[in-house]
Amino acid sequence: MRRLFTYLTTIFIALIMIAGCQQADNTSETNETATLSKLQVDQTKPYIGFAMDTLQDERWYRDKDYFETALHDLGANVKTLAANGVQEVQNQQVKLMIEEGIDVLVIIPADAEGAKEAVALAEAADIPVISYDKMVMNAAIDYYISFDNIKVGELQATAILNEVPEGDIAYVGGAPSDNNAHLFREGAMNVLQPKIDDGSINLVYDNFTEGWSPEVARDNFQSFLNDATVDAVIAANDGTAGGVIEALGDRRVPISGQDAELAAIQRIIDGTQTMTVYKSLENIANTAATSAYELAIGNTIETNQTVNNNLTDVPSILLDPVSVDVSNIDETVIQEGHIDPSDLTN
Ligand code: BGC
Q1: How far apart are CA 100 and CA 254, in angstroms?
Q2: Are 183 and 271 members of one domain?
Q3: Which molecular function GO terms apply here (predicted)?
Q4: Which residue, judged by its Cα, is nearest atom 3 of ligand 1?
């Protein structure tokens, strides 16, 4: 019910935005100055559109802040719109930004496949597209800037196998509509499969989690626990890990995560979560902002690899993820300023 309400509210907001945009369009031919002030865009500066999937997990606010700050520092304008996980809304938001005259589109797809419509709109308007963190599949994007997401899954499974080299393991994946969720699982399976083949590990649970929702992860896992036991859990991110830990109640088993959220670092200190994966949000946001700026002023971006998105080999920059457990919190997330130690209790 709450999801339906959120969905309807999001559609309603998008419709209001589109109506506002159309209104601005109607006046554009008659009064250029009025149009400029309505669109609130200084056309003399590069203008970047940032189409975000969601602000649901803690990380995305930080991505947004770093990205916008970097572009402002470079002297560019930026508009960020988040789609609340609804692809139709994101497509409309991209349409709006194109009408406003963006020079470059940076997109975190709400749905890996569905976002190709938004990319097609940008392509038709000759606007370069950067896929940020999550790949838009089957679409003619120009660049992909993310992390080595297969390695994320490998780090998670390696840390969990260090704790539980034999036994019953559960895999709690991310949203099936997010290409990253498949890459994280692929990485985890690279490490698990040989142990499954030699019989030392039983994969007793293996499910994706709609919308990366912690509540969905909790409820799914609760149903599973009604008639099964488990020795360890590979959860694809800190949000889903939080849901599973709630479902486990007083039971403690090794469990992974990802994102180095404050709550997860606290759980690692408290002993309810084994590890997380730290990905420097400052690094990805600054890299994407600088790249978008360069494209906007007519330059190209240097990349050193390509990643296939089922349509084309996309020139890519993949940053390195870092495994964090209780032994290296200080020299990773604290030293890098990702976590403020005064926010933690011992
Ligand atoms: C991101 C993760 C994030 C998840 C849910 C993934 O695509 O790479 O960092 O936890 O989406 O938002």
Answers
A1: 49
A2: yes
A3: carbohydrate binding
A4: 237
Checking phi first, is residue 228 left (phi over 0); if not, alpha (psi -120 to 50) or beta?
beta
DSSP-derived 3-state class of residue 152: helix
Q: Identify the weakest region by mean pLDDT among 9-23, 105-119, 135-149.
A: 9-23
Q: What is the CATH number of the domain that holds 212?
A: 3.40.50.2300
**CA 276 to CA 239: how far, in whole Å?**
11
Range of the domain at 261: 149-279+323-343
160 and 199 share one domain: yes
What's the CA gap between 337 and 153, in Å, rounded?
A: 24
Counted domains in the chain: 2
Are 230 and 128 members of one domain? no
Confidence of residue 45 (pLDDT cuts 50, 70, 90): very high
Over residues 283-304, the mean pLDDT reads 97
* Pocket lining: 259 vs ligand 1, CB cutoff 6 Å: yes
Based on the fold, state whether residues 168 and 226 are members of the same structural domain: yes
